[in-house]
């Protein structure tokens, strides 16, 4: 389940989302962009805005909007006219605008949930960040801070649950493809599989997946012997998600929308970008 990395679906931390854990989507709680509030009111930033609108926004729309669109409380605006304002006000995307540390580059360079930039796209994003940095009269840090590769753990954790529930079948596959009114099986509202590591193939047994819906209802799900988790309960989207088994807890960076409940579907928590705990 898009950055747990849960669910693009769920990005633990799924789709977010974490761009996550899942994940995240980048670095929640990071430094606030300096000297400019992203309101577009500073005429001195007009050139940077124009560069973003023409070169960077199309890249974000193509590469990131699936999991990090504005509807999912992400940084890719639904209306291109609002794109620069939303992006530059989000430190989890731009950091301090330094090209060597900005999550928009650093998070994706090693490949983020199967997404990578072309050399041309990377060059355009670097040029835009450099212009923002110059116009905002800030200085690039001489020693880049270490990048985190997973969202920070939530304080507290759930004790492992002894379970013999098998989870039946098809771990890692898109549950709701079958478990829906169209699929003919018992409909799930959310379903996925928890693994050890985003690239892992070993399921985590007896962890607790917390689904907290828009009304604040917490639905705890215990992962089965094959790592599967699911619920038939009605939920009010968007849903926030975290996975926990002591000593680890990871929360999905972006909330899950109704379209993201099928955690393991293509483009979300597939091989290499699983719902996971360390």
Task: Describe the model.
It is a single chain. By secondary structure, this protein is of the alpha+beta class. The protein has two domains: 1-18 and 150-278, no CATH class; 43-135, no CATH class. The chain is 19% helix and 12% strand. The protein contains six helices and seven strands; from the N terminus they run ααααααβββββββ. A four-stranded antiparallel β-sheet has the order 3-2-5-6, with no helix packed on it. Strands 4-1-7 form a three-stranded mixed β-sheet, with no helix packed on it. The longest helix is centred in the first third of the chain and has 18 residues, at 46-63. The chain starts with 45 loop residues before the first helix and ends with a strand. Mean pLDDT is 77; it is low at 1-41, 139-145 and 147-155.
Strand content: 5-15%
Q: What profile does the largest beta sheet have?
A: 4 strands, antiparallel
What spatial form do the alpha-carbon principal axes imply? elongated
Oligomer: single chain
Low-confidence segments, given as residue ranges, are: 1-41, 139-145, 147-155
Beta-strand segment tally: 7
Rg (CA only): 19 Å
Structural class by sheet pairing and helices: alpha+beta
Domains counted in the coordinates: how many? Answer: 2
| Terminus-to-terminus distance | 16 Å
Helix-strand sequence: HHHHHHEEEEEEE
Give average pLDDT, whole number.
77
Helix content: 10-25%
- Give the strand line-up of the largest sheet: 3-2-5-6
């Amino acid at each position: 389940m898009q950055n747990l990395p849960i669910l693009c679906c769920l990005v633990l931390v799924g789709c977010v989302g974490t761009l996550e854990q899942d994940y995240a989507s980048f670095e929640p709680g990071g430094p606030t962009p300096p000297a400019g509030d992203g309101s577009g009111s500073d005429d001195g930033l007009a050139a940077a805005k124009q560069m973003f609108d023409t070169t960077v926004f199309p890249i974000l729309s193509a590469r990131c909007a699936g999991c990090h669109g504005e509807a999912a409380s992400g940084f890719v605006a639904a209306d291109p006219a609002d794109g620069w304002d939303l992006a530059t006000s989000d430190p989890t995307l731009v950091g301090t605008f330094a090209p060597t540390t900005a999550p928009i580059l650093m998070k994706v360079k090693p490949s983020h949930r199967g997404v990578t930039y072309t050399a041309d796209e990377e060059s355009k994003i670097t040029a835009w960040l450099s212009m923002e940095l110059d116009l905002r009269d800030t200085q690039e840090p001489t020693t880049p801070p270490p990048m985190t590769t997973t969202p920070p753990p939530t304080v507290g954790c759930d004790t492992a649950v002894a379970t013999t529930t098998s989870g039946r079948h098809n771990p890692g596959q898109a549950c709701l493809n079958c478990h829906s009114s169209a699929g003919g099986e018992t409909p799930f509202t959310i379903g996925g599989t928890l693994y050890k590591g985003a690239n892992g193939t070993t399921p985590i047994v007896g962890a607790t997946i917390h689904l907290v819906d828009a009304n604040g209802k917490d639905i705890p799900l215990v992962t089965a012997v094959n790592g599967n988790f699911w619920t038939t309960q009605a939920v009010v989207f968007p849903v926030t998600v975290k996975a926990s088994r002591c000593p680890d807890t990871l929360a999905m960076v972006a909330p899950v929308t109704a379209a993201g409940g099928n955690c393991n579907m293509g483009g979300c928590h597939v091989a290499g970008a699983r719902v996971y705990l360390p």
